[in-house]
Amino acid sequence: MNFKEELTGLTILVDDYLKDYFSRLKSEVPETKLIESMNYSVMAGGKRIRPVLTLAVAKMMSKDLIEVMPFAAAIEMIHTYSLIHDDLPAMDNDDYRRGKPTNHKVFGEAMAILAGDALLNEAFSLLLKTSANAGEKMEQSVKASCVIANAAGKDGMIAGQVIDMESEGKQISASTLKTMHRKKTGALIMASVIAPAVYIGLSGEEIKALSEYAEHIGIAFQIKDDILDVESTSEELGKPVGSDERNNKTTYVSLYGLDGARKMLQEVTQKAVEVLEIFGGKAWFLKEIAYFIAERRN
Amino acid sequence: MNFKEELTGLTILVDDYLKDYFSRLKSEVPETKLIESMNYSVMAGGKRIRPVLTLAVAKMMSKDLIEVMPFAAAIEMIHTYSLIHDDLPAMDNDDYRRGKPTNHKVFGEAMAILAGDALLNEAFSLLLKTSANAGEKMEQSVKASCVIANAAGKDGMIAGQVIDMESEGKQISASTLKTMHRKKTGALIMASVIAPAVYIGLSGEEIKALSEYAEHIGIAFQIKDDILDVESTSEELGKPVGSDERNNKTTYVSLYGLDGARKMLQEVTQKAVEVLEIFGGKAWFLKEIAYFIAERRN
């Protein structure tokens, strides 16, 4: 099986699960407008990189993908809520995301705040229900859920958003930039890889390797984002390009130049691939994801 | 022991736990501004009715209060986040709560959104960590956490906020009003009572009685709120009075008149007390809480 086929297959699995999940909610929950608003952003064309990573770890270890799907879906819900709140007028004030109007442009600010809240709550609701029904795997399920809760919270993703907010319009150091991204986007990417590893019960050595892998692709992801903001087109990206420079934002490109950033991207991608050696050939897809992140056009 | 002493004692237990919890976070988490913003609203003088109910159920059954404290604290964090988001300009746009400036007035809108998000996340983080360390009580702990997640989410508290928002400036029916309050405030009050009951492992009959009790005090709480908005003073209430009428809001008073609302309050309070009969004398404090809710001055 080639990379493109595998990626498409796993993405469809995630999409179908989320589609089913929210159409079930629509028929069960009387507040249909709220569910519509949640569903709108969950289905707004995200790349599903995080949930695909979760499934990929399970598949690499020949485990049942359906068992880790709740972790994958919960992470995608958390990712989605963070985008809805990030786009709000009081935050980044973005009208478009992935070429579509942002949640508050369609449903209004109040509903967007509540839909974000409800998605975060739903993620944990799903994790807890999954854990309650996990039988002898309950402890692993709860611990995997803890990994996600830690990554998403006050010392993970939200902390990253705070640093981002406080850095607005300022030049920041390379180390602050790295910390910000490690928390803002890196933490949830890390959880996507480590939550299934904890659930499956991988060894300390395996978890360490996966965690280094996740750290590197997290950085690669951000460097590539910064590069795309300079060299992509609005059509390809689904959002305006050049916004980092206009907003006087510190990025990997502003700190290291376009060539410097490209070189760093290549290096961290290489490192991400190398640390997976202990898994041998079965890590092929995770390695390809690292290259994919570095080479993507949007 | 009399009611006042017991209430004060349990409130202090909750306050101390939360104070410790957030000062630990302050020393552990680098994003101190975020923790300060979370802490500000958690410590802004809430009555702690929900967490006190949680402890009261455990105490009634002669169980260790410390064991149910994480449920109590998580519920208070969820309650607090909902107030922060509710007060935002895009929602109720309130400048004061309990006589103090609202979170976004002190920390700005963006930080208030993030602090709310972080409190919701922290509540589940605490519940999951508690469950992971619950040993042979893990299943009960996870199930009690599920009760809280369901109460707070898309078919509970958040659904109630959506109904409230959609009812703005409109006259609504008595049944819509009841549904709105059952979800917006009732659901979390219910969880405060049922989560410890599930954790402790009470019988179906006991849980049914407690759930009827919670339903009734939830309604009583709201009727009393509506009455206070008419007959209290701004000083006593810590917020402007008469705002329901000014905002053309449907309330128990607008639907049934002041006397009608008072009569209903008396009836539901009586019912709340009666359903606790199966617990005998040890339910004294829960019964007193019902009277306290009906008689409070703010």
Structure commentary:
The structure is a homodimer of 298-residue chains. Chain A has a single domain, classed as Farnesyl Diphosphate Synthase (Orthogonal Bundle), CATH 1.10.600. Chain A has a two-stranded antiparallel sheet. Chain A has helices at residues 3-28, 32-42, 49-60, 65-87, 103-107, 109-132, 138-152, 157-166, 174-200, 204-231, 234-237, 243-246, 252-274, 284-295, and strands at residues 96-97, 100-101. In chain A, strand 1 (96-97) and strand 2 form a beta hairpin. Chain A starts with a helix and ends with a helix. Chain A has 14 helices and two strands; from the N terminus they run H-H-H-H-E-E-H-H-H-H-H-H-H-H-H-H. Chain A is mostly helical. Helix content of chain A is 75%, strand content 1%. At the A-B interface, helix 2, helix 4, helix 6, helix 7 and helix 8 of A face helix 2, helix 4, helix 6, helix 7 and helix 8 of B.
SSE layout and pairing:
Two copies of one chain form a homodimer.
Chain A: H1 3-28, H2 32-42, H3 49-60, H4 65-87, E1 96-97, E2 100-101, H5 103-107, H6 109-132, H7 138-152, H8 157-166, H9 174-200, H10 204-231, H11 234-237, H12 243-246, H13 252-274, H14 284-295
Antiparallel strand pairs in A: 1-2
Backbone shape of chain A? globular
> CATH H-level name of chain A... which superfamily?
Farnesyl Diphosphate Synthase
Pair with the most extensive interface? A-B, 54 and 54 residues
- Which CATH architecture of chain A would you pick? Orthogonal Bundle
One letter per element, helices H and strands E, the order of chain A comes to: HHHHEEHHHHHHHHHH
CATH C-level category of chain A: Mainly Alpha
Percent of residues of chain A in helical segments? over 70%
Biggest pleated-sheet summary of chain A: 2 strands, antiparallel
The span between the termini of chain A is: 24 Å
List low-confidence stretches of chain A: none
What percentage of amino acids of chain A are in beta strands? under 5%
CATH topology of chain A: Farnesyl Diphosphate Synthase
Q: Give the domain tally of chain A.
A: 1
Please list the strands of the largest sheet of chain A in the order they lie side by side: 1-2
